[in-house]
Amino acid sequence: MKPIWAVFCKDGTELLRDRRTLFVNVVLPVLLYPMMLLFLIQVYQLTQAHRPPPPRVVMIDIDAVLVEAVRSGQTTTPEKPADTSDKTASKAGDTQVVVVTPTASPAASEAVAQAHGLGEAIAAAMAARATADGAESPTSERSPAPERAALLQLVRQEWSAAAIVVRLPEKDGQARILIAFDDADPQFERTVAVIDAAVEYWRQDLIEQRLQAHQVPLTALHPAEITRVGLAPKAQATRMRLAGIIPILLVIMALSGAFYPALDLIAGERERGTLETLLTWPVRRRDIFLGKLLVTVCAGLLAVILNLLSLGFTMGLAGNQLAGSGGGGMDGLLAVGAGTLALSFLALLPLVVTLSAISLALAGFAASSKEAQNYLSPLFLVVMLAAAVALVPDARPTFALDLIPITGPVLALKEALRASEIPWLHLLLSTAGSIALAAVVVAWSVRLLDQESFCYPGLVRAGWGRWRRWGAQPSAPGGLEALGLFAACAAAFMLIGPSLARFGVVAQIAGPLILCLALPVLLHAWAGRYPAAGLHLGGTRGESLLRATLMIPCALALSLALSTLQPAPPPDDAQTHELMRILTSVQDLGGLPLLLLVIAVAPGICEEMLCRGTLLAGLRRGLGTTGAVLVSSFCFAALHLSPYRFVPQFSLGIFLALLTLRSGSIWPAVLVHIGHNGLAVLLSGEGDDSEGLPIQTLTAVTLAVVAAIGLFILARPRPSVALHAPGHIPRLP
Amino acid sequence: MLILDHVCKSFYDPGRGEVKAVDDLHVQIAPGVLALVGANGAGKSTLLRLIATLLTPDSGSIRLDDLDTRRDPDALRARLGYLSTTTRLYPRFTPHELLRHVAGFLPVDAATKRERIAAVVAQFNLGDILDQRIQGLSTGQLQRANLARTLLADPDLLVLDEPTTGLDLVAADQLVAAVRAARRPGRLILMATHVMREVELLADQLLVLARGRAVFYGPPATLGSGEHLTAGVLRLLTPAEPSAP
């Protein structure tokens, strides 16, 4: 710990001496929100000082009640007299309009007559169209073009108004008015709001008058009185409202806080020429990285704390300055509760560590701070997108979502904030996932400073030569290269799969597997001149295959048992229906042999070549064995695109990866994969007749078998064939 | 004793393709001062970085006594001092803070750390600039502070890559004196240079590199002294590198 602490002290002091860092990480968060608020207040006051003139509305032959309602901005219904303290009533003055009542001059009379005629024509045309279309309310539709243009000209030129309200002749005892807006007027929305409210007021007034005429009490109009009241304490209500925002805010604040140190601590040192000095000091390279990581994490957390304090202070200020704007104030933030915020911090800590490590590593690949910014900007976008899931109103955590980086913790935290009970299981699972991810990322990143291509990017950045390997040929691709291949294969798999449906169901299933998974792996191995054994594609001993055959039921039991741990797909799940349709079609086409070929053999070979072949071998070079097994299994599960099958697929991935590493070849895993899929197909066929598998019994028995066989295998001596140890052969620039 | 055992190191150059910066170098170097001379691009800096554990050999091995640069880089760094034209100092620190931070990594007790800091401060006459920010120091002052930083660990292996480049006459002279003063039994000082006078003044042994290969290894006096030494080195470099600048 001592060397890490020494690096932390050195880098922390240096960072604090840098004015830019202080400004970005301390001054800016503290000043940003108050400054933005001051700016907004200034803009608000300026707009108040220079308000545009109130909109003009022409009213022709309109009832005095409606004219007065529009003029005074009346919005409350007549039977409920406006409460002066009511917010809507106080707004009335702001939305007041100028009512133009044409005088009886000859010119005005002519214009009024013209408006009447046009209004009548437009109303008639729209009523006819409504009858033809069978629509109920055609008010929002466009009226006939020539009349519309003529009326618009009249409104604009004769009265310089934004709207016109014309009384039309009564029909069947129903009062009729036409409201026509100049919807290109800058005050359009304000005018609409005022007129709509006034019309509603007038309508209510008419109803009441008629009820009174028929001696019907007013309560007939309002048979029920409804009173609404919120019962939850303010803290819970505020927490509920802010639940979607707080986790995202914390994640983004942490990332933005870690951004600058990540740029400065490796790429910045390289740029200033001090990195080489540091690398010759008597301290382990991984201690250097961990010290720098500690500084980055602390900077991220400091930014979160300062941002929250500043935001709370600003909200309080806003509550006082802009009365009625609904600012929750510091009280609102405090109401969220210190305990909840502390919990959020703890749950997000592994995530902050992960993001800091990724930022530091990514920025470290750059030769300068400027280049590092280019690498970090996409990371920012990815994190924002993954965190934005919490903003979806009904998004709730599931066991599959818990395991997704960033999204899992953010959703679990959102649930913790909004639910009356803390969802401990989701919180623990997502935090455990985050910790595992942080461990993998940190384990990968702390090794970077041991690589000379990382310390001296100039050596490998010289033109196209960077793509060629000098010196000894590595036996497997690097971790990033393998992940890149996987990403390309997965993208092609998703894009090409649906388009092959036109060639039949067999092509739809087997085509993408062969074209997008197996073929790219073979092409990549050929282009990179990797030996087959290095990619786990070499042969294996018969004994390993025999042992693999024995493990097939265990693999199936494992995945069946684990599938009960997560929610089953809903009965109307489209994906499941599509799968069942395809299975039936394949079976109709070629019977059971074809079904097994398409569902078991093709995926077994193609998926294993990618996930346990190139991906596992490549990741093992970059991440070590544990990281490679976990990440490749995660990719394998993600490739299946089904959240309902994620946990069993992930576990099956781990099982198959261990099998591959043990034998040094994918073929035992291929055998188990084929057997697993084949047995699943056969059992699901039987399941239709016997109303479901006796899963619990099967699980209990076979898990016992798994344990027994696992122990048997582990007890046996390891094969003498040497595995390709990660980073065994140095990769040269 | 530093042993370079068939060391090779290649890298990529956009103009020349694969360049063998160090090509099958096989020498044993005893404690004392070794001057490393060669044309630009002959592989001097690469060799010194390989020795300083900053780079890893493609093949072969480098050992200081029983420590291998590939197997025991951390232990080797504890006995190493490295200074080159590209190693800079932290501009936001003062020399005193810098020395304290470096001393923080040394596996010795606090009292010894203080003693060593005081010793290098006195040796390199850093008293006046001890509390000034490094970003305000002159090139000569910087190089003194850098050398003090390098010698703080009392290293057995001192690697200096063209330490007098960019220094004025007085500062260069002071640095040469400092290197001479840094000699002690059991310490090996490797110094790459283009200045033959420094070779004459300091070096017990001379290693001349051309295109990554050793073309001469022995006492500089073998080649002569003064202008004869320069001419001798030139003769060694010219036939091997007709296009060298």
Précis, in short:
Chain A is mainly alpha-helical and 733 residues long. Chain A is built from 26 helices and four strands. In chain A, strand 3 (163-171) and strand 4 form a beta hairpin.
* Beta-strand content estimate of chain A: under 5%
- Distance N to C terminus of chain A: 32 Å
Tell me, what's the shape of chain B?
globular
Q: What does the radius of gyration of chain B come to?
A: 18 Å
Number of strands of chain B: 10
In round numbers, the mean pLDDT of chain A is 77
Helical proportion of chain B?
25-40%
Give start-end ranges of low-pLDDT stretches of chain A: 78-95, 323-330, 461-467, 687-693, 717-733
Secondary-structure element string of chain A = HHEHHEHHEEHHHHHHHHHHHHHHHHHHHH
**Main β-sheet description of chain B:** 6 strands, mixed
Structural class computed from helices and strand pairing of chain A: mainly alpha
Widest sheet of chain B: strand order?
Answer: 6-7-8-3-9-10
Protein chains sharing the most extensive interface: A-B, 35 and 38 residues
Poorly predicted tracts of residues of chain B = none
Rg of chain A to the nearest angstrom? Answer: 35 Å
Helix content of chain A: 55-70%
What is the distance, rounded to the nearest whole angstrom, between the alpha carbons of the first and last residues of chain B?
34 Å
In percent terms, what proportion of residues of chain B is strand?
Answer: 25-35%
Helix-strand string of chain B: EEEHEEHEHHHEHEHEEH
